[in-house]
Every structure is written in C-alpha cells, then in structure tokens.
Amino acid sequence: MLERKTPAPGDGPREQEGVQSAEAESTLPGYARTLSWLSLVVVVLTSLGLSFFISHWAREALLTRQKEFARQLVENLNSQIYRRFALPTLLGYGRIAIRVPEQYERLDQVVQSVIHGLPVERLRIYDFSRLVAYSTSKEDLGRAGLSPPYLDKILQDGQTHSEIITAFPIWQAPFRLPLQEGSFVLRVLYPLRGEALRPNTPPPIMGALELTQDITGDYEQVLTFQGIIVVMCLLSSVVMFAMLLMLIHRAERVLSARVQKNRQLEKQLHSNERLVSMGRVVASIAHEIRNPLGIIRSSAELLQRRTDKSDAGTRRILGAIYDEAVRLSQTVNDFLDYARPRQPRQDMVDVNLVLDQALAFLEGEMNTHSVAVERACAPDLLVRGDKDLLYRAVYNILINGQQAMDGPGILRISGRVAASGQICLEFLDSGPGFDTASLSSLLEPFFTTKDGGTGLGLPIVKSIIASHGGSIELENGPEGGALVRVLLPAATAPQEAS
C-alpha cells in the first residue's frame, strides 16, 4: 500500500489562524488547573478562618460562662458571710477578729458550706492592710505580698476584676494537649460588702474576696472542639475541592472534545476550500490537456500498428509514448475525480457483483504479477448507492494492494454483515504493510511516497465511501500486510411481486 511524505504546511492566513487557535485552546486546560488550585487555596483559607472564628467564639463563650459563674459564686459568698458570720459575730463578740480561732472556724464553716462540691481551687479574704485574713489554705493566713497589684483599686472603688492566668502563651495550648492541671486559672477579685446603714448610701466595703478556679479541663475541651472544627473544615474543603476538580476535569474533557471537533471542522473546511480552488485549476488544465493527450495516444497507437514489426526501436518508442499518454490521462482523471466528486445515485447495488467486475478487469494485471486472490464473501451484500462510484473505490483498493506487494503475493477479500448491521469489506494483502508513522496521513490528499503517484487513490476511495454514508479504516494485519476495512450501510433486498 502507499506510504506518503507529509506535505509542507501552508503559509496562508487560514493556516496561521488555525495555529493561533490551537495555541489558545491548548492553554485552556492550564487555566482550568490553575483555577482549581486557586479555588482550593480560597476554600482552605475560608474554612480555616471560619473554624478559628467559631472556635474563638466557643472559647469566649466558655470564659464568659466561667466568669459569670464565679461572679454569682462570690456574690453568694458575700451574702452568706455577711448574714451567717459578720452579723452574728458582731452581735456575739462586738467586733470581728478572724484570727480568733472561734471566729475563724465559724467563717471557715460558712465558706466550706457554700463552696462544697464546686470547682473552687482557692479562696482568700484580704483586709485593708493587704494581709490574708482568711484562706482555704491555712499556710497563707497573715501573709503579705500575695495580693495582686490592683487590690487597692478593688478596696477603694468596689469594682470587680477577673483575669485568666496561664502557665504559657495561649497560642501554644493546641500544641501541648493534653494540658496539665493549673495551666489555665480564672481569678476573680470581688469587694466584700456589708449592708447599707442608711438609705441611698453604698454598702461599706469590709475587704476583698479572691476566688481562683482551675478551668484547664474546660479549656482543653474547647481546644479539642476547635481541633475537630478545623479538621472537619479541612475535610470539607478537600471534598469540595475534589468535586470542583472533578467538574473541571469533566469540563476539560468536554472542551477537549469540542476543540478536537472544531479542529476537524476547520481541517475539513480548509480541505474543501482547497478542493474548490483545485477544481477550478483542474478544470482548466483538463480542458487544455485531455484533447491533446487523446490525439497523442491515438496517434501513437495508429503509428504502432502501421510500423513494420522489424523496426523494433521505433515500435518501442511508440509504445513508450502510448503508455505515458495513458498514465498522464489517468492522472488527469484522478484529479478530476477528487476535485469534482459527483453525487451518488441511490440504486440497489450488490457488492459481490462490483467485486466480480473489478476482479475481472484486473485479472490480467494480477496474473502478470503472480498475485493470487482469495475471496470469502457472504451472499446478498446489498447497499444503496452508485455502482460506478463503488466500482471505482474497489478498483483503487485492489490496484493499491497489488502495487504494494510489488511482485508475487496473496490478496484476501472478505465480506460479511457486521454486528452493527453494516456491510463490512476487508482487503488484506501480503505486502510489507503500512508505515505506522504515516498511517494517519494516508487518507489525506497528495500524501504519497510512491514514485509517479498523485496521492489521490485512497482519498478518492474515502470520498466515495463517505458519500455513501460509510467509513474506511486502515491498519496492519495481525500477521503482517496492509488491511483496508470498508463499512457501508446495508440495504434490504426488494420484495418480488407475487
């Protein structure tokens, strides 16, 4: 079969536009991938920001709840100390002196009854001299220097103050899980008040209450909740990114299919434009060449008959002139067949009869080159089409197969009804087969490696088969040789009149 050299690309505007379009289209997948990764970054940053916002809100809600609990607890302590300790002590002893063991024990009973079972780490009462007047830890009694620096403001202004005491920076907490006890402590300073002695007067301040709570466990739960939120946000981001990437890849496939289709349409349009231009040129050339070629061929044939057989040299020259005139006429006919394809008729055609006609015409050529034909075709292979055009297609396939073997060989022909319902014709020769590098270009016009060939044989076959609604496939046989497969729509046989 034919092997062809790739033609040089054209330099026209359409070729340049096609190259630019291909370059622009090739960048679209890159843009899609960039968009997908940018989307991942945006989704991850958004998810992380949302997770940190939620976790911060949860942490602040925890601290607010703890502070509110501590405030209510110290208010209750203040009320209980005043009613159950301060008043009875003043009535019984005339003054309050906590360092007296009886008074201290009475105050401790009141405090323990209030804080029993509650998450209280330590409770202290400071007097105006900044000394510890009472503490749940007896070793702190009477000590100075334990009060915070803003104690004076609490004693003077009567304001409540709360703060979180940490053993390390807060940002290190997620990396230190599980947290040790005492890592986060809530401290509340509350003025210890009595009751107002006169209406519309503020109650007197008797000292300051210091309440400390270990909130490490609650804070650890918040950090765990924060970690869960971050992980879930990241997982949701990955899932969303995977879905987005899947959609982008699907869009890429659709876009690639459309790009491929557009390229095929552009290629077909360019081929049609080239065909139209070539048709005009060929029509002019054929008008100028066909008649002189006919005269040359007939004259050479006539002179060859009139020349004496003994004049071998002259007869050889006349034979060469006649053969070249026939070859040139065939070349002109190839150009005309490809440039001006006719619309096929819609007759009922038996493919076996077309094969019979073509093989009968080529019988002498096949015998001359010692080419054996093996035929295995099913009966009633009927198609709708133009018998003459189908004959031309079959003829070109057969002659190409014979020329590809370049000597003795076997040409196998098979015909059947395929599973798709189409008529399938296969032509397999025993030649060297197709060149895999040029296999995709063999059906393009003017692509040939055959000396003296026009490169229009197989393109003409393709054009004829396509005009009948069929297709042609080229491949190498499983055991070598070139395989040409033709698929044509099947037609049902007409019903005979009863």
Protein traits:
about 500 residues; alpha+beta; Heat Shock Protein 90; about 55% helix
Mean pLDDT metric: 78
Q: Name the beta content range.
A: 15-25%
Strand neighbour order, sheet with most strands: 2-1-5-4-3
N-to-C CA distance: 48 Å
Name of the CATH class of the domain at 343-489 = Alpha Beta
Task: Find the CATH superfamily of the domain at 343-489.
Answer: Histidine kinase-like ATPase, C-terminal domain
- Number of helical runs? 10
Structural class of the helices, strands and pairings?
Answer: alpha+beta
Counted beta strands: 12
Low-confidence stretches: 1-16
> How would a crystallographer describe the biggest sheet?
5 strands, antiparallel
Write the layout of secondary structure elements.
Blueprint: H1 13-26, H2 28-93, H3 101-115, E1 122-126, E2 132-135, H4 151-157, E3 161-166, E4 184-193, E5 205-214, H5 216-306, H6 312-339, E6 347-350, H7 351-361, H8 363-368, E7 371-377, E8 382-385, H9 387-405, E9 409-417, E10 422-429, H10 457-467, E11 471-476, E12 482-489
Parallel strand pairs: 7-9
Antiparallel strand pairs: 1-2, 1-5, 3-4, 4-5, 6-8, 9-10, 10-12, 11-12
Helix pairs in contact: 1-5, 2-3, 2-5, 5-6, 7-9, 9-10
